[in-house]
Amino acid sequence: MGVASLVIGLLSFFVSLIPLCGYVASIPAITGLVLGIIFLVQAKKREETTNNGTAIAGVVFNTLALVVLGVYTIFFAVFTETKDTVKNLFEDAISDSARVEHDSIKQEIKQEIEQELATDTATTESNPFEMSGSDESDSVTSESGDSAEVNDEAENDSEEQ
Fold first, then answer.
1. What does the pLDDT read at residue 19?
2. Residues 156, 138: contact at Cβ < 8 Å?
3. Taking the model in full, what pTM does it have?
4. Is 133 left (phi over 0), alpha (psi -120 to 50) or beta?
5. What is the CA radius of gyration of the chain?
6. pLDDT for 25-55, tens place per residue?
7. How far is CA 4 from each of CA 31, 32, 49, 84, 120, rounded to the nearest angstrom?
8. Which residues pair with 149 in a beta bridge?
9. How is the chain split into domains, by residue range?
10. Residue 131: strand, helix, or coil
C-alpha cells in the first residue's frame, strides 16, 4: 500500500499542476493519501519500520497535490471576481466617456446651428430684398459699343416687365 500511495501521489501531484485540468487529480490524491495513512497506521501497530519511506513520500505528494488544487481554486475564485469587477469598471468608464463625448459633440453641433441661424438672420435683416447671388455688376455692351453697368436686379426687373 505504501508503493501504491507513492505512485498515486506522484501522478496526482503532476496532474494537479495543470491549470483547470488538475481538478481531475483530486480524487486520486485523496485516495493515495488515505492509502498512505492506512499503511503507516498498520505499520505502527505491527511495529514494522521497513518500507515506511514510500508511504511517507506518498502522503507528502498526495498532500502537495491537494494543496496545489486548493491554491488554484482560491486563485481562480479571486481572479474571476476581480476580473468581473475590473470588467464592470472598464465598461462604466467607457460608457461615461462615450456619454461625455456624445454630449460635447451635441453641444458643438447646437452651437454651429445657432451661429448659422444668427448669420442668416443678420443677413436677411440688413437687406431683405437682396438675393443670394453675386453682388457684382455685369458689364453689358450696347449696340453703339458703349459699355453700361447693369445690376442683376435691374435685369430681372426689366425682364419681368
1. 78
2. no
3. 0.50
4. beta
5. 46
6. 889 999 999 999 998 888 888 887 777 888 8
7. 10, 7, 18, 43, 94
8. 139
9. 2-121
10. coil
